[in-house]
Design brief:
The complex is a heterodimer. By secondary structure, chain A is mainly β. Helix content of chain A is 13%, strand content 42%. A ten-stranded mixed beta sheet of chain A has the order 2-1-5-7-9-11-13-15-17-19, covered by helices on one side. In chain A, helix 2 crosses helix 3. Chain B is globular and about 55 Å long. By secondary structure, chain B is an alpha/beta fold. Chain B has a six-stranded mixed beta sheet, sandwiched between helices. Classes of the chains: A mainly beta, B alpha/beta. Chains A and B meet through helix 2 and helix 3 of A and helix 2, strand 7, helix 3 and helix 4 of B.
Chain lengths: 382, 257
């Protein structure tokens, strides 16, 4: 089944403080159509790791033929009501979804594509439940295809039980015209580890929400993000990390490059409850603006009710470092190439942490094809 | 007559409208090692930045010829390709790319400029192996991000290693000895001494005489307030060590020089 969306909600969303910089009112005037085509040709393009489990949804519909399921991956058809705890205003509705549990040897790749000649809107749902001591790694790829104003609203929910470990990479790729409004909801229990990477390489308006609830003692959480955007693109990374129990260690680290008139918004609220003593929380947002028209809005926010905590935040927005440029040039590298190399280095620092090699090198390829002078970097691989 | 490797005449340079170099002259012939010593603020680092092509420094008067070509006409990267190498006092850290990756870009940019074929991965790695040995540098370090997490000694050794990789005609060492203990200093000096040749020249900028025990210069110049006030052989460094820079203050000099 495809999805129906009541798009009137988008008209006034930006009147709300938490959507201040992200106007998606255009969505309220678009007539979305159903599209049940399997679009196998696009699926093939994003089948990155052929030996790994692969779960495919096209326009919100599960694609059995294109997918490769393994033991503890199950598909829910038409339900997918998840994540009631957050105050996300991204609409939810019935859709196909995937449920993942049990320790997995390999990264599970989940592909959500939205495609068609006319605008399509759909939800997506990924539910990850790591039981005590289990370890799960998921790589999500969310793709808009073509020049339509498609709308994808994927929602991922994670429950990490005691001593479990969950890694999620989410990459937004494909069309620079599509809207991506995504949410990620994380519930952590004692001594669990959750690591997420949200990578925005495409989309016209992208909102990536992360809501994390550290409900057990000694949780470890890394919420990282990277983006590279150009003409008429915006990304809004919106996080709320709640430390509800003692000894939690969380990090938010988002960085990106903005070219032309691209915009980024970062809101990184960290909430520390009275009981959550010995919390160690950091939030960082780094932007490099390549033009005078690019804009970055960083809103690091701390809300702390405990008295024995270490919480830091930092935001930097600037141009490419002159001293680093000089250093490269004094090694014979021409200015253009030096600039490309420094942009690549800045973004690659984030990609370096991805553990799935195939997924990482595929993303690096996309990055290089978007980067002016990227060919020069490709030649340097040893 | 031999063409000087470096010929600086009446060099005046300013940063943000403050004049730092006030008529500096220096000639380096192939094979020579010149040391420039001076107190803080005398213009030592400005000199190295100007030679390397730092855009923040404006040359208001004078000339710099390198092998007879006008260096001031060239961009920083062209100067490097022509054969000038600056070892930084504070090497820049570049998270996100490994030293090998970065150096492959540098080596091939320079080879391209000089009309040589670019090195393939195998030849490049062989060269890395060979040059790393010459400065006693663990090649594992070169898989790490450029200068990131390097100790002070590792950073300076990495600079000398880069110099060996890029094979310049003129090496400028900007306070390469700062922050090094005696063992690290010896290793760095040994690396530099291996690169000495009848064709190659060095300008060694330093605050202390100590480095010159290991890299023995042909000439020592004292830089004060943007000018060279005294030149001599290596024994001048010992005089400096003993008497301090104050003895060379133009105002404090009573001998009429």
């Amino acid at each position: 089944m495809s999805c129906t969306v009541d798009n009137s909600i988008f008209e006034k969303l930006h009147k709300n403080e938490s959507w201040l910089y992200t106007n998606v009112s255009a969505l309220s005037t678009i007539t979305f159509q159903d599209n049940e085509d399997a679009h196998a040709e696009f699926v093939e393009l994003y089948d990155i790791s052929k030996n790994s489990p692969f779960v495919v949804f096209v326009n919100g519909i599960f694609q059995e033929n294109a997918s490769r399921l393994s033991g503890s991956i199950t598909i829910n058809t038409g339900s997918g009501e998840v994540a009631k705890r957050s105050d996300s205003q991204i609409p939810r509705g019935a859709c196909d979804g995937v449920h993942i549990t049990g320790t997995q040897q390999k990264t599970i790749h989940v592909l959500q594509i939205v495609a068609g000649e006319a605008p399509v809107a759909c939800y997506g749902s990924v539910f990850i439940h790591a039981n005590e001591g289990e370890s799960i790694s998921v790589a999500e790829t969310n793709v808009g295809i073509g020049n339509c104003d498609h709308l994808l609203m994927p929602c991922t929910e994670v429950i990490a039980e005691k001593n479990s470990s969950v890694t999620i990479v989410r990459a937004i790729r494909g069309s620079k015209k599509a809207y991506h409004l995504s949410s990620l909801h994380v519930e952590q229990h004692e001594s669990s580890k959750v690591q997420t990477h949200t990578l925005t390489l495409a989309g016209k308006r992208t909102r990536n929400e992360v809501y994390a609830y550290l409900d057990g003692k000694d949780c470890e959480s890394n919420f990282d993000g990277m983006y590279m955007l150009g003409q008429d693109q915006l990304v809004d990374n919106h996080l709320r990390v709640e430390h509800n129990m003692p000894g939690g260690n969380s990090r938010e680290f988002y960085k990106g490059i903005l070219d032309k008139n691209a915009k980024s918004v970062f809101t990184g609220r960290i909430y520390v409850k009275e009981d959550a003593q010995q919390t160690d929380a950091k939030q960082t947002n780094q932007n490099i603006l390549l033009t005078d028209d690019a804009e970055a809005f960083a809103r690091p926010q701390l809300e702390i009710y405990a008295d024995d905590v270490a919480c830091t935040h930092g935001a930097t927005t600037g141009e490419i470092d002159d001293e680093a440029m000089l250093y490269l040039q004094t090694r014979g590298i021409p200015a253009d190439a030096a600039k490309t190399l420094l942009i690549y280095a800045f973004l690659n620092e984030s990609l370096d942490e991805l553990t799935d090699d195939e997924f990482r090198s595929n993303l690096v390829e996309e990055l290089l094809s978007n980067l002016p002078g990227g060919e020069f970097i490709r030649e340097l691989y040893l | 007559m031999t063409t000087p490797l470096l010929e600086i005449k009446n060099l005046h340079a300013s940063v943000e409208d403050t004049e730092i170099l006030k008529g500096l002259n220096l000639t380096v012939l192939p094979g020579e090692v010149h040391s420039i010593m001076g107190p803080n603020g005398s213009g030592k680092s400005t000199l190295s930045s100007v030679i390397a092509g730092h855009e923040a420094y404006e040359v208001t008067e004078g000339s710099i010829l390198f092998n007879g070509i006008d260096l001031l006409e060239l961009e920083a990267d062209q100067r490097a390709c022509a054969g000038v190498f600056l070892a930084f006092q504070y090497p820049i850290e570049i998270p996100g790319v490994s030293t090998k990756f970065f150096l492959k870009a540098a080596v091939n940019a320079i080879r391209k400029y000089r009309g040589q074929d670019e090195l393939d991965a195998m030849d490049f790695l062989d060269l890395v192996e060979e040059k790393a040995k010459s400065v006693n540098l663990n090649t594992d370090l070169l898989d790490r991000n450029v200068n990131q997490g390097f100790s002070g000694g590792e950073k300076k050794r990495a600079e000398i290693f880069q110099m060996a990789m890029l094979n310049p005609m003129l090496g400028i060492l900007d306070e390469t000895d700062s922050g090094l203990d005696i063992d690290a200093l010896k290793i760095v000096a040994e690396g530099v001494n291996k690169l000495r040749s009848p064709e190659r020249g060095f300008v060694v900028i330093t605050h202390y005489q100590r480095l010159l025990d290991y890299i023995v210069p042909d000439y020592v110049h004292v830089l004060m307030d943007g000018k060279i006030v005294k030149s001599g052989d290596k024994s001048l460094a010992l005089v400096l060590e003993e008497k301090g820079y104050a003895a060379f203050e133009p105002s404090g000099c009573s001998c009429g020089c």
